[in-house]
Amino acid sequence: MEIKNDILWRVYLSFLGMVILGLIVIGKAFYIQRVEGKFWTNMDSSMHLKYLPIDAERGTIYSEDGNMLSTSIPVFDVYVDFGAEGLREKDGKRFKDHVDTLSIRLSNLFNDKTPAEYLKEMQLAYKNKDRYYPLKKKISFTDYKELRDFPLVKLGKNRSGFIISAKDKRINPYVLLANRTIGLARPNASNVGLEQRYDSLLKGKTGTQLVRYMAGAYMPVDGGDVDPENGKDIISTLDTYIQDVTESALMKMMVDNNSLHGTAIVMETATGKIKAIANLGKQPDGTYTEDLNYGIGKATEPGSVFKLATLLSLLEDKYVTNNTIVNCEGGVKSFHGLRIKDSHLGTQDITVKDAFERSSNVAFAKLADQYYGSQPSKFTAHLHKFRLDTLTGVDLTASSGRPTIKNPTNRSWSKTTIPYMAHGYEELVTPLHMLMLYNAVANNGRMMKPYLVSSIQQYGVEVKAIQPVVLVEKICSDETLAQVKECLLAVVNGDHGTARKIKDTTYLIAGKTGTAVTALDNRGYNKGNKIYQASFIGYFPANQPKYSVAVVIQNSRESRKIYGADVSGTVFKEISDRIYGSYLGTQKYSMVNTADSTQYNYFGMKNELSSIFSSLNLPYTDSGISGFWRATQMKYNTGILRTPSISTSTSGSVTPNVVGMGLKDAVYLLENMGLKVTATGRGRVMNQSLSAGTNFNKNQNIALLLN
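^ thats the sequence. predicted structure below, dont judge the formating
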């Protein structure tokens, strides 16, 4: 009996243990399913299936004349699923039959490995059953098109295992052209320029792609994609021709003068559209590139170009007129213990207009101190109306420089502040601020908001047009405006104008020079530390303004030229000449036969010159004896054709004279003679590197300079 009880006790105990264990298992299963179920489900999904974002095709930025300034081009990553069933069926027959030819084709296409290296690489990956093997990354669309027709690849993803992943690469087709203003869309970095300002429109809406995690990599799953929505296109206000002209003129001066950095901005007078903006900074290796937006983002002491604001204030308050006499006291005067000096000493009594024309610091400091010294708020109120203390409102808000205009409540305000502000010191403004003011004068007193984008498009259809915005309807009275325009004209066209060197007989230029002393490395204005900022801001044609231009260049201690007219004025003149020439070319003209005593010389082919004279109904005589080329003189509306003094025969080794020829004719002539031609500029040939009449060797280089 005792043995039976002992056995039953042990059975009951085992049964109880099994029941308890079963309850624990059931409880744990319930806990895992109900309490931890979501956690384990998510972990399973993350290890096997997940959605990855698909970037939308980024929109393109265009110039207003239809050229691409920033766009995306497709690049492709090539992967191979060496575990694909279609590739491994029948003991890998398909792979083995094509891998040799494929290796040769890949080697010839990419030219980075030998066929043997490609063969060994793919055979090893096939042996290891690599599921998402990166064969080649970032190949071009041209290479991708050729790759699609390669053996094995053309059989499709399921049978070949080849997986092509497309991505976008952002490029600027014009490279340096307005690079800082346009900006670049950079992965994992902050964008700049228009790319940054309009990023939300350009990038579109991201899609999704379902992928499976296999063998250490994610592979796409068919049917799980949500297509992205492509970004919108931005039509900028920039004009590629004007931008090219502006960039090249600025670059030429900065290289020749060894300047530190500079900017040139072209604005359409009536609308405020920025048609060009060039920003160049000198790099440690001596080259220049668009490193910062000096025109919009850098506020500096403007120098004498600020005298326009002082003149407007004095005239508007009727304290002076253009004919008011002011004594310049020989060009040197102390104001409350600090001396102000003119660049040209010896001047005494002159009119306000003459003081502006000569850019007298003393005259404007005296007038401002006399009339605003005891009421400075009246002067700063004018500067506020001119928006010189306010952000410009241009599209590139993130990089817009904040201006600093003192007011009497500032701790740094002193008795010398007004006379120094009057001629361009003790305030900080950007070149764009000053350009807005000059443009307002050119626009009959109406100040326009500067802007860089004219419309937004999607799939070629305009979805939003951006209209010009008037910031100030009238900055001053018509009476003040007339006097100010007269002064700005005198700076360029007057006998004593500081910018008379850039005077043009074809069209009128109005503007103001500025040469501001700046401190080198913020070490003060002591001798040896100071350098000069050269400025010229103006508009043209002055009688019917179409464009306003600001050129501001920071010189270095090694710069040969320092004055505003010599540095920035020269850049302005080159820009205005080329824009004006292009603008006139779009107009219709009628021929007026008036007596002309000026000789006009030109070279070209005889039959083409004859055709031109006939089309214009102009008489001409041909005194040439033989040959296809003629030198032409135009005098009193009569053409005289003659044989060129320097031989233009295509035989022989004597350099012909091609000065005055168009580029097409010059290249035709010189290359037929065996010379290699390089050309710089546009228009007619104005200079040639090999002198006419000298002997040359076959295949010798000759450089032509066009103007």
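The CA atoms of residues 183 and 192 lie 5 Å apart.
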